[in-house]
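Form 7-S
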Amino acid sequence: MQHYFLKQPAQLGASVDLNSDISRHWVKVMRATPGDHAEFVDLNGNLFLGQLQTSTDEKTTVKLVENLDSKSEIPVNVTLIMGLPKQDKADWIVQKTTEMGVSEVIFFAADWSVAQWKGNRIDKKLERLQKIAAGAAEQSHRLKIPTIKYEKSLENIVTSFSGRLLVAYEEAAKQGEKSELRHQLGEVNSGDNLAVVVGPEGGISPAEIQLLENNNGIKVGLGPRILRTETAPLYFLAAVSTIIELNS
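Output:
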């Protein structure tokens, strides 16, 4: 069943005019006809079963006929703080971490980032990444679309973050550290804020490690292998799902 996000609050029994993007995809691409059903998430994260009422060149109207229950969201708020990766890896990271349940992705200009985002291109990149997140959230039937941000300064991010701050540190893996990630995730409660810092291809610099430790960042290993920058967030989110979500 198709799954779409409305841009307004809604209530059971209401008739809603769909925007052109949803209408085009559901009616033109998926060939929906009156009487067909799809899932709709309103602006407040409420999930409804909607029935297509009418579709014309001017508008497409759906009636919200049933409240639905969903457990598709991880019970904690997970922020990925991601050093700028090279090439188009940001697209892939946003898409896959959205499917895995991330709440927010904040890219930052790491000391050892090769990639650079500059000037007015930043807004265009964020707009594209936000669309990728929306598409991935629809595909994975989520109730929330993650927020995608960019911050030049890692210090600004960590000093404003309130919650448990973990650092995916490759040196911890090299040194054989195996238990800290499991221990830290085991201490997290439903509704908590959790963040993980992942470095770019070059890793996290000593100065950044010092900054993170000064702001209560806790270094954790992600298993005994050295992971690519685009793989590490997925490992972390899989661990969150296994230790927190599937045990709740």
